[in-house]
Write a structure and sequence with these properties.
The structure holds two protein chains of two kinds. By secondary structure, chain A is of the alpha/beta class. Helices cover about 35% and strands about 25% of the residues of chain A. In chain A, the strands form five sheets. An eight-stranded mixed sheet of chain A has the order 15-14-13-16-17-18-24-21, sandwiched between helices. Chain A is globular and about 70 Å long. Chain B is mostly beta strands. Chain B has a 16-stranded mixed sheet that branches. Chain B has a four-stranded antiparallel sheet with strand order 6-11-10-7. In chain B, strands 3-5-12 form a three-stranded antiparallel sheet, with no helix packed on it. In chain B, strand 10 and strand 11 form a beta hairpin. Classes of the chains: A alpha/beta, B mainly beta. Chains A and B meet through helix 3, helix 4, helix 9, helix 11 and helix 12 of A and strand 6, strand 11 and strand 30 of B.
Chain lengths: ~600, ~375
């Protein structure tokens, strides 16, 4: 694996569960652009059982489109020749095929070291199958039984600060030893176990688990109560992912020889590009990837990265679970027409058992997008609950703090400070109208103040994540120019709207001036959406004044917002529906209200519901 | 001829069925290649490790964990009976004696001088795997199980609940559009696998459990009723382990949906025959469909049958609509246009044209049909 000093062309693949996606990135003049893409079914499972076949097929498609020879008899051609007609300078790849990377984690206290272990595993791109702790609500024998049933790719064991408890950490390891867990992919090798707990307990852990597992010790994820050190555990997870998990998966040994950097778990790569963008632009970012079975949420706030996986919130395989968790009422509040509840439940059930179907009618599309709002909302709620200040930290509190609901355990995701939300996944990236994606994201995430919204056009973030580890400049350029599509900006005040008449009352005085000199002035009532078309290149001078004293746009209650706003393919949306968004529960009230919002945004063909 | 690949459900009067009969853990395979087996014959067996019970004996005795071994009456590997004394302190002059007893019959797995925990493992639990269908063993996987193959009629469903059961098939529905109600379920249906039409209601299903019906095959079923039946919602379609007293195989989907004619007629032609059914469903990778299998009373091929690659959908094939507005409707493919078409939802997709029995022709996204493979 040698990276040339100057990279002019890159082939990147992402081997997903069903599709392998290849993109070609080339330096065009002074900038890097994504120029061609191809895809092919992933070939990890029978009858092919060789991931490289899918990779070659996807690369072949890129080859045919670009005219550049990328594939020879032995694999991907690297490096490129002088005139760029053959090969690429580097080949890189991510993978989530075969269910991705699945971990079980353990710690002494659930909300402290177990949570740190979970954060390390999630940050490494893993799915956490279960988390164990000595203060678990389950009895030890129930936990052991559960560990036995699960067949993870590896176990990450934390527990105790350095020099702290020994007994509880050993008890945890005794539990793992008693369960004698087996690996998911079978085979003769031992299950990898990473110990990232109290370093003084390493000898006892070695004695308990050394013979029955492939034990590796790394620095403590929580060396002291006030600090997390997740890097060493994350790096070790990646090493073991390559050495054990990937090496066991069909064809990956060959793929590992082809790539110029280690193969990265797909979500880890997405996390990397999010962090790169947040750092380079100096902003706070949240990202979401909604799939058929799971929804991943990422956030970077003040440089702190968090990722969560909502394993059973998705748009097809687990769509019924969205119904179960959100409840029918929560889904119905986004549906702009009345519908028989039993019929709706059956329709959602039928989507679960026929997951690949797509909405043919407008009514089906509206239902699907209503469900998506709830899946996204629930996943984001889970993320906010997980992305918190470290718990267990002693704090000096003043009298003033006693009246504030912050401190240890408070969420890091401060909506008023969020600058950009990036959505990805079929329901967002492929919505027939971009405005539909924008409204789904506004309704689900309820951005506060001024927030930009964007979608990943063709799910390129994993590729760019790996690329950022090699050439950050190239990854950033492609991200901005070819990967994300800016939908626009949402401007939404927070504050008490009180009890209002159905027609509402004046909430915002909106004054906009576009670069071409045209202006927009509007008094916006409460519970309304208002869309102003503006492109990404236009900087719109805005003065937005709250007309209700409690409303806050980020400048303080009642204070006007004066700043430049940028649009996108949709525009600038003003949202006075409150936080939490107020939706009437009775169909007779709900339907016209939701229809108003749909019409205001021009979401659907007939302009209404 | 133009063809597209669309996964479908098999409804086959005559098929070669291959069933994988494997143990959950390594064990002993009791059959050899070529053996004729009956559905209830045991083909493999093993012992699952017993449950693990950690007990903090040091705490119970009130001693320092580091000295625990001094007070243990049993060592690692020793067998114990439930309530048997495993540790004891001498006390002072015979007074203040502390004792610890085994919480289960089994073996002492470990004694920890750090935590004071003694780990007990209960006796192994024997597990047997039967052949599930009458057939021939065509392959043995040493230590794991075998493959049993048979010539059979096969109906694959789309969703099911409950595991493997056997019973004689009994048509209860008059026709494929019938709805089974409580009064249709009579005590003489005990141990039978009953076939309905378009729907079965919750009342009839509960009644079937009461009278001891072995299994139900129905076109439709309400999603709501799952929660009523199981006490929880099935959020992800991975089923088979439910214990509801019978096995349910749904052939069309959720709602009131006429059973496909080919499915209903095939099941009717098998009335009275012994069937093996399984409700186990897994929609994600490694798809598992619920099924009804009726084996023929004859020797099937003794070599392992390799099913042909699915050919995909071609003009003239029978397909079922699997999404509104044509959900559950069955017709024949009359056109496979290549260009993308904009649907009412403004989604641009590849479509196919389907002609229904009444002569009407409609367009549907290719993703919204399922072939009925025969």
């Amino acid at each position: 694996m040698t990276i040339p000093p100057e990279i002019r062309s890159v082939l990147a693949t992402d081997c997903g569960s069903t599709t392998t996606k290849a993109i070609l990135i080339e330096k065009v003049g002074d900038t890097y652009r994504q120029t061609f893409r191809g895809e092919a079914p992933t070939t990890v499972e029978a009858p092919f059982e060789d991931v490289t076949r899918g990779v070659l097929n996807a690369a072949m498609e890129v080859q045919e489109l670009s005219g550049r020879t990328l594939v020879n008899g032995e694999g991907i051609v690297t490096p490129a020749n002088e005139d760029g007609t053959e090969g690429v300078d580097i080949y890189i790849s991510t993978s989530s095929a075969g269910g991705g990377l699945q971990l079980v984690v353990g710690g002494v206290v659930r909300s402290m070291t177990a949570e740190s272990a979970m954060r390390a595993a999630l940050g490494a791109g893993a799915i956490v199958m279960d988390a164990f702790a000595t203060n678990d609500s389950r009895k030890p024998h129930e936990q052991i039984e559960r560990i036995r049933q699960l067949r993870p790719d590896m176990i990450l064991l934390a527990g105790g600060i350095d020099g702290g408890t020994v007994k509880h950490v050993v008890a945890l390891a005794e539990m793992v030893a008693a369960a004698r867990p087996r690996t998911r992919l079978g085979g003769s090798f031992n299950l990898p176990v990473i110990f990232a707990g109290n370093k003084e307990v390493r000898p006892q852990i070695q004695e308990l688990l050394g013979d029955i597992s492939d034990l590796e010790a790394v620095d403590n994820v929580r060396p002291v109560m006030e600090q997390e050190d997740l890097g060493p555990a994350r790096d070790k997870i990646h090493d073991l992912f390559m050495d054990h998990v990937m090496a066991q998966a069909p064809g990956y040994n060959k793929l590992m020889e082809w790539t110029d950097t280690p193969i990265m778990p797909t979500p880890a790569a997405v996390g990397l590009i999010m962090q790169t963008i947040a750092r380079r632009r100096g902003i706070n970012v949240a990202g979401v990837d909604i799939g058929g079975a799971t929804t991943d949420v990422f956030s970077v706030f003040d440089g702190r990265f968090n990722r969560t996986v909502s394993a059973n919130l998705g748009m097809s395989y687990s769509v019924s679970n969205v119904l179960a968790e959100a409840g029918l009422g929560a889904i119905l509040r986004w549906v702009p027409f009345d519908i028989d509840e039993k019929l709706l439940r059956n329709r959602i059930g039928n989507k679960m058992i026929r997951p690949t179907t797509i909405p043919q009618t407008l009514e089906e599309l509206k239902i699907e997008q209503a469900i998506a709002r709830e899946a996204l909302r629930l996943a984001f709620v889970q993320h906010k609950e997980f992305a918190v200040e470290l718990r267990g930290v002693q704090q000096e509190r003043t009298i003033a703090d006693a009246f504030r609901q912050t401190g240890a355990g408070a969420t890091l995701v401060k909506m008023m400070k969020l600058d950009l939300i990036v959505g990805s996944g079929g329901v967002l990236s492929h919505a027939p109208r971009r405005v539909q994606s924008m409204r789904m994201m506004i309704d689900a995430f309820e951005p506060e103040g001024v927030t930009e919204l964007a979608v990943d056009s063709i799910f390129m973030m994993p590729h760019l994540g790996v690329l950022s580890s090699v050439n950050e400049e190239a990854a950033t350029q492609v991200f901005e120019r070819d990967c994300i599509i800016y939908l626009g900006t949402c401007v939404a005040p927070v504050g008490d709207l009180g009890k209002l008449p159905p027609e509402g009352k004046p909430a915002l005085d909106v004054k906009l001036r576009k670069p071409d000199g045209t202006s927009v002035e509007r008094i916006l009532n409460t519970d309304r959406l208002f869309l102003v078309e503006a492109t990404r290149d236009e900087e719109v001078e805005a003065v937005v004044t709250p007309l209700i004293r409690s409303l806050d746009l980020g400048e303080g209650p009642g204070k006007p917002l004066r700043r430049k706003l940028r649009g996108g393919v949709v525009g600038i949306t003003f949202d006075t529906r409150g936080r939490t968004i107020r939706v009437p529960t009775e169909p007779a009230d709900r339907v016209p209200r939701v229809q108003d919002w749909v019409a205001a945004m021009g979401e659907y063909p007939e302009g209404g519901a | 001829m133009a063809a597209i690949f669309t996964p479908g459900l098999r409804v086959s009067p005559r098929d070669i069925v291959l069933k994988d009969r494997r143990l959950p853990l390594e064990g002993e395979v009791l059959v050899e290649v070529g053996a004729r087996v009956g559905a209830t014959d045991v083909v493999a067996r093993t012992d699952l490790p017993g449950k693990i019970f950690p007990v903090n004996v040091a705490n119970q005795l009130g001693v320092d964990p580091g000295r625990l071994k001094e007070f243990m009456l049993k060592g690692v590997g020793d067998s114990v009976e439930r309530d048997e004394l495993i540790a004891k302190t001498p006390g002072i002059f015979g007074l203040f004696v502390s004792e610890a007893n085994a919480v289960t019959a089994g073996t002492i797995e470990s004694i920890s001088t750090v935590t004071g925990q003694v780990i007990l493992q209960a006796h192994p639990i024997p597990v047997e795997v039967d052949a599930y269908i009458d057939g021939t063993v065509v392959e043995v996987i040493p230590g794991e199980g075998c493959l049993v193959q048979a010539a059979a009629s096969l109906v694959q469903g789309i969703f099911g609940l409950g595991g493997e059961v056997r019973g004689d098939l009994k048509m209860v529905a008059m026709d494929r559009t019938s709805v089974l109600i409580e009064s249709d379920i009579t005590p003489d249906l005990q141990d039978l696998i009953i076939v309905g039409g378009a729907h079965i209601g919750l009342g009839a299903l509960k009644r079937a459990v009461e009278v001891g019906v072995a299994g139900i095959v129905t076109g439709g079923f309400d999603y709501d009723d799952i929660k009523e039946l199981l006490g929880y919602e099935v959020g992800v379609a991975i089923t088979g382990g439910e214990e509801l007293g019978l096995t349910l195989v749904v052939t069309e989907g959720f709602g009131n949906i006429d059973m496909a004619p080919a499915t209903f007629e095939l099941l009717r032609s098998k009335e009275g025959a012994r069937a093996s059914i399984n409700g186990a469903t897994q929609i994600r990778a490694g798809v598992i469909r619920p099924e009804v299998i009726v084996t023929f009373d004859e020797d099937g091929p003794s070599e392992r049958h390799v099913p042909p690659e699915p050919e995909g959908i071609a003009l003239g094939d029978t397909v079922r609509g699997i999404r509104a507005p044509y959900f559950g409707r069955i017709g024949k493919v009359s056109g496979l246009p290549v260009d993308l078409t904009t649907m009412e939802s403004e989604t641009r997709v590849r479509i196919l044209e389907v002609e229904f029995d009444d002569g009407s022709v409609v367009s549907m996204p290719r993703a919204n049909v399922e072939s009925i493979e025969e």
